[in-house]
Amino acid sequence: MTDTRLTALRTLLDGRWAPVRDEVREQMGRFRPVEAGLSTEEYRARVLDLMGELAATKRPHAGFAPEYGGEGDIGGTVVSFQTLGYGDLSLLVKAGVQWGLFGGAVQVLGTSRHHDEYLRAIMDGELLGCFAMTETGHGSDVQNLRTTATYDPATREFVVDTPEPGARKDYIGNAARDGKMAVVFAQLVTGGDTRGADARSAGASHGVHAFLVPIRDDAGNAMPGITISDCGEKGGLNGVDNGRLVFDHVRVPREALLNRFADVAEDGTYSSSIENENRRFFTMLGTLVRGRISVAGGAGSAAQKALALAIRYGATRRQFADPTTGEEVALLDYRAHQRKLLPALATTYALHLAQEDLVAEMHRIQAPGAVVTDEKAQRDLEYRAAGLKAVATWHATATIQACREACGGAGYLAENLLPQLKADSDVFTTFEGDNTVLLQLLAKGLLSEYGRRVAALGPLGTARFASGVAVEAFAEKTGLTKRRLRAVDPRSPQAQARLIHDRAEHLLASLARRLRPASRTGTDQFDIVNDAQDHLLHASRAHVDTVVYDAIATAVDTVSDAPTRELLAQVRDLHALSVIEADRAWFLEHGRLTVAESRAVSAAVNDLCASLRPHARLLVDAFAIPESWLDCPMLRTP
Amino acid sequence: MTDTRLTALRTLLDGRWAPVRDEVREQMGRFRPVEAGLSTEEYRARVLDLMGELAATKRPHAGFAPEYGGEGDIGGTVVSFQTLGYGDLSLLVKAGVQWGLFGGAVQVLGTSRHHDEYLRAIMDGELLGCFAMTETGHGSDVQNLRTTATYDPATREFVVDTPEPGARKDYIGNAARDGKMAVVFAQLVTGGDTRGADARSAGASHGVHAFLVPIRDDAGNAMPGITISDCGEKGGLNGVDNGRLVFDHVRVPREALLNRFADVAEDGTYSSSIENENRRFFTMLGTLVRGRISVAGGAGSAAQKALALAIRYGATRRQFADPTTGEEVALLDYRAHQRKLLPALATTYALHLAQEDLVAEMHRIQAPGAVVTDEKAQRDLEYRAAGLKAVATWHATATIQACREACGGAGYLAENLLPQLKADSDVFTTFEGDNTVLLQLLAKGLLSEYGRRVAALGPLGTARFASGVAVEAFAEKTGLTKRRLRAVDPRSPQAQARLIHDRAEHLLASLARRLRPASRTGTDQFDIVNDAQDHLLHASRAHVDTVVYDAIATAVDTVSDAPTRELLAQVRDLHALSVIEADRAWFLEHGRLTVAESRAVSAAVNDLCASLRPHARLLVDAFAIPESWLDCPMLRTP
């Protein structure tokens, strides 16, 4: 008899795109898992084959526009990507490069001339491509890429060039072996020198734009003027062929510019629907938010798989006898073992639900025919994606590490899947945006929004607000905050929400105050911001905590089956209280928890670990990871 | 002109065994680094070659007894192992298996008949061997291994047998490919059934003993009755051939028993110089403490190398422009980047110095002719080794991960060394004793010692002591502790020492109080201890923090050069304050820090990061890692 809670939890977790998830699960179950011990070249070939199998399912088509045979199902595409994360992560990433980054850029940055020519071949996996943005010297600061694309009106061509070693395109997926074409991001220059070493000195630079550049001919040889090299072995994802591209005055036709937001006329006249260069750049980047959201989702699946493996192992592997009974005790019955895995499991649930909300919001804004066109909604989505990607990928890295260790020597053997999961997902923390940089991006967004809120108060309101903040700061220093008077029951969702939200607000308000001097001219802006960098990152993380908490707290209320709701409420409690516990110094320092309450939080985390332990297996089973992708010797050996 | 501080720091870090370190550095500089992209079999072959080169240096001989051509330099052997940790970690581990575990067991558990026959061949690397302790079903709880060695007086042989699948020897280094012999740990049974499936049922079991068992003939084939299999690819260390051994009633002569502590007469009479089976087992295990100390040292070297790579990269790689100057800023000038690397660097210094103390103490106790023979010193050494191994290996894992991320995409490429460092060192947290289990072992030791101290007070003293503890507990609950009256200056070593020691003592005392009910019969011991498990682990970690802090604090006082002392004092401060910062919730909860003081600790960590930043390169250069082992493209590219 199936536990009804299993069905109810699975329904909740699968959410709106449940049919997509089921379809991908079924397809993946048919893919033969990648063999162990392949050489890098064999592994790459194997993943390329899988790309073909994946294309044949037509699943990757769904995200593209209906005019070209797609379904315009933006949300479903991200969810299907996420579900692929239960399997081989090289396939996940190579599929992401092909259909998400390369295909996505052609779709959202290009116009019908590009769509007509390339979209079908891209969808079918016949035209494999690269997303050539990152350079050796510029990864996070993509606005300052050094590659140039200089328009030559004489031949109506762009000349793509790598002017210095640091401008080499680096870490580019699909480049080392399989890619035939690349979307190359370069500074668009008009009126510049198309032959010299420094195109930008003579001409006018219009900022970074994207160009379609063929990089290999049909025989697989590099196109003239392009030097392709191989990044070689990596820490993981060795089924993906990352490479480097160097351009020596490579000519492409004027039409190679992906011209949705800007164009160059035959005579070299530059035009754009977005006047401001900065805004134009961020509008272009903004359309690519899907990649970041997909990585957050992939990280979630990797963490879920690691937890499923470690919890199953911990429930069967026994070590040391109970002194009273003489029976050996299952690892998962030890509190220390529970502490390693169960709070991480609770947070994995909360992140999954927050991810589902994020995907739905993205779908609302980006799906064809979407009614939302305001910039603010788009910007908020980008900030939320940045924050969630950072927190979800760090969580995955830490969780998979904990799961590896929780399985001891068995967890270190490739046959038991955890080492590759760890190695493959490790780069998630620094690709598609370095996590630290993403949290800074989020902080910037939160600060602008905060500035607008304060400004909206008007002069009198601002003064009142400022004095209120000052009084609170004084009260905190003296330990006399009003909040202390409200006793905190750690198991009350109201108290959890208050603590988590209040911390985020306070960190943001105090950050805004601290950074105010940096807006004055003549100050050393860099030092002021740099000295507050840990405060800034803390504020961002605290904000993400509110988003994640709200997702699980809301989900609990939607569950109608009482036993399931009760179980999920405990998961919510464990997530919330382990978040609070990890930062309880802050709550103590700011008078939000008394010493007794702080200790009660730690005690409650321990109690929740004990009470969720019997349900741990059920909770990981609800992820519904195909059994064939969890099968490994450590779960078979008695 | 060399900075005099560089020389002074290097002298301090190299310590007593500086000549050994220099010799190994020089030898390693001559070894050709292992090529990238080798298959597992090629890599294993390459490491085997390096084993030969290493044996030819005669360095591994030094740790063995002078009678057999060694130098009895126990400390120097561990230090030389540690220095090997700057190079290929597969070589480190394979050398550790051969000369540390296998050779070490023959030396310390065997007697002259074993020494005469095998030691020279082991030292020369002609006889490669395994240390077959861990079983699939029992790793941490080695006292309950299931492999049996049953004496058959009729033939004067032991019959070694694997009675159940879980008793298979697993993860055994040197077993899959190269080992000819194994030290096999098995339950010694006399009077048992030498042919049946359960030898122990009929006979008398005397606990776990070690036996020398040939596992391969000269042609490399498994010996009759032994099934050898390969653990296959691992998360790292793929130059080491880990394998599995299954014994089907394998007969070895009576002399195969490593009989230093116990023997079986021809007629089957068992005798031992240590009557108590439990004590006998732990005495045998205790002689093997060197492996654990070596792993702690190897982890330290891996962390140092990762920091050297990441700090060099962070000092040259620039990203985003300073808004005032327009110049791009070096990664290491960002506070967030400093926060990732510099506290870890400070703790790496402190751990290195604590490791040096530990090695010196081991040498004092174990070197031939050592005058220290008391059991307490040996036991204390084991506890200290357990604690330091756990803390040092977790520190290495976290630090290498942070270094990898701090180098972004470059840090994920194999050519830049960090991924392999991460993958290879990852298992250090769970082999040679699982870290969580080791911290429990330490806690057990600390509790016994604490019990003895309390008992030594006598009845009146105990009562006074108990009431003092009660008063303190009351004062803490009400927030009125006397300690709060002493203001804490975070930069004062006295204050640092007081905070770090006081926390360890308090955690231990309260743990002892909490566990007292478990000593009464009829209670549920398991639940009482299990409920306190996080408290117990916290107490152990806090104790290790005292040992590590004391090591660096003492070292600062020994430095005579004033600028060096000043620099090292800042390193000490950063280590101490980041330890306190990480656990400042505890200090707040227990009235050891006021809110203002707690915030001052965080502020001081930030200030120290800024003031140590200009010296970061100097601090990693003082590790004197051979340049050829740090050379990688990311440090060459402009």
UniProtKB/TrEMBL annotation, chains A, B:
Taxonomy, superkingdom: Bacteria
Domain Acyl-CoA oxidase C-alpha1: 286-447
Keywords: FAD, Fatty acid metabolism, Flavoprotein, Lipid metabolism, Oxidoreductase, Peroxisome
Subcellular location: Peroxisome
Gene Ontology MF: a single term: fatty acid binding
Domain Acyl-CoA oxidase/dehydrogenase middle: from-to ranges: 130-250
Chief localisation class: other
A biological-process GO annotation: fatty acid beta-oxidation using acyl-CoA oxidase
Residues annotated as domain Acyl-CoA oxidase C-terminal: 493-632
Cofactor(s) annotated in UniProt: FAD
Pfam family name, one: ACOX
Enzyme Commission number(s) of this protein: 1.3.3.6
Enzyme class: oxidoreductase
Similarity-based family: Belongs to the acyl-CoA oxidase family.
Protein name: acyl-CoA oxidase
Species for this entry: Pseudonocardia sulfidoxydans NBRC 16205
